[in-house]
Amino acid sequence: MSGYNGWIGQEPAVCRILDANLDRAREGLRIIEEWCRFGLNSVQMASECKQMRQELARWHSREIRAERDTPGDLGTELSHPQEEQRANIQQVLQANLCRVQEALRVLEEYGKLHSPNMGTACKQMRYRVYTLESQLLIYHRYQRLKRSQLYLVTSSSDQLLPTVEAALQGGLTLVQYREKGADDLVKLAQAQKLRQMCHHYGALLIMNDRVDLALAIDADGVHLGQQDLPIAVARKLLGPHRIIGRSTTNPEEMQQAISEGADYIGVGPVYETPTKVGKAAAGLDYVQYAAQQASVPWFAIGGIDPNNIHEVLGAGAKRVAIVRAIMQAEQPTLVTQYFLSQLTKEQHLRRIEAGIPQS
């Protein structure tokens, strides 16, 4: 091949491939950038998207654009049902991350025919997009965790899936799959269905105790009791992009969990509960301590129901975890909505008392 100018006239199809995929990558990056900018308020991630778009624009030369033939492109008529709908922001981001990664892979290969530097640049950018994907996943999970006020911890039930879905329909955004009695095959099957359901509704799914099952179903994280794996070991196995929670029953356990890197903690049991047989209630004093001292998100848990929720909120809780009051409810959607309304109301009152302007 004598040079680029000779090649450009001989290979218009390659130019059209480069043109289409440069457009595709830049469009996908712009969609991601808008969410980083307006949805996440992340200057760092938005700037990274913008920088990559500008780098691609420099490769999108006039010669490549000149071979564009939109009316003759059969691909404009191709579609797939999954492209016609998006259930939540995660699906929008995931679809466009995949779009960018695929386009960059095409540019990497066909770009070598244009310029060795183009192939190398697109390969390096593809790895930058993989890093951006991990950052977005971490950011989304932690933001969703911080915004979640109500945490459903499941218990054994013949109506497990319908009950959880009813709660999700009521606005629930955080679920922990806790099942002590079933064998692993049952747990795996139920957890897979719960993960699919939770992600459809934009909620997080946390696996109780089992790091292996959390990895197997690609859960958003794991919740560990005091007798489970150390947080450091779980983090090594799970990687940096999944959530790790720890149960605590007193100030010493709380401080240790935080120092070891727990992303959130359970505070309780506030009241005696059959879920924790033989465990004395930590009481409202521990809730008050957590309200003053906890530096990570925390959830009051243990025997909380519609009759005592106001005592727990009065002690300083902003988030609560519920088991029986939802899992055994005749109308889980309404009970979920009730808890959320009380949590939101309490938060609103605290903002007023603190003199924070209401949006």
Automatic annotation (TrEMBL):
Residues 16-134 form the ThiD2 domain. GO terms for biological process: thiamine biosynthetic process; thiamine diphosphate biosynthetic process. 4-amino-2-methyl-5-(diphosphooxymethyl)pyrimidine binds at residues 176-180, 208, 247, 276. GO terms for cellular component: cytoplasm. Mg(2+) binds at residues 209, 228. InterPro entries: Aldolase_TIM, ThiamineP_synth_sf, ThiamineP_synth_TenI, ThiD2, TMP_synthase, TMP_synthase_cyanobac_bac. Residues 1-128 are annotated as: Unknown. It catalyses: 4-methyl-5-(2-phosphooxyethyl)-thiazole + 4-amino-2-methyl-5-(diphosphooxymethyl)pyrimidine + H(+) = thiamine phosphate + diphosphate; 2-[(2R,5Z)-2-carboxy-4-methylthiazol-5(2H)-ylidene]ethyl phosphate + 4-amino-2-methyl-5-(diphosphooxymethyl)pyrimidine + 2 H(+) = thiamine phosphate + CO2 + diphosphate; 2-(2-carboxy-4-methylthiazol-5-yl)ethyl phosphate + 4-amino-2-methyl-5-(diphosphooxymethyl)pyrimidine + 2 H(+) = thiamine phosphate + CO2 + diphosphate. 2-[(2R,5Z)-2-carboxy-4-methylthiazol-5(2H)-ylidene]ethyl phosphate binds at residues 273-275, 303. Residues 129-359 are annotated as: Thiamine-phosphate synthase. Its EC number is 2.5.1.3. Residues 150-326 form the Thiamine phosphate synthase/TenI domain. GO terms for molecular function: magnesium ion binding; thiamine-phosphate diphosphorylase activity. The keyword DNA damage does not apply. Its cofactor is Mg(2+). Pfam families: ThiD2, TMP-TENI. Keywords: Magnesium, Metal-binding, Thiamine biosynthesis, Transferase. This is Thiamine-phosphate synthase.
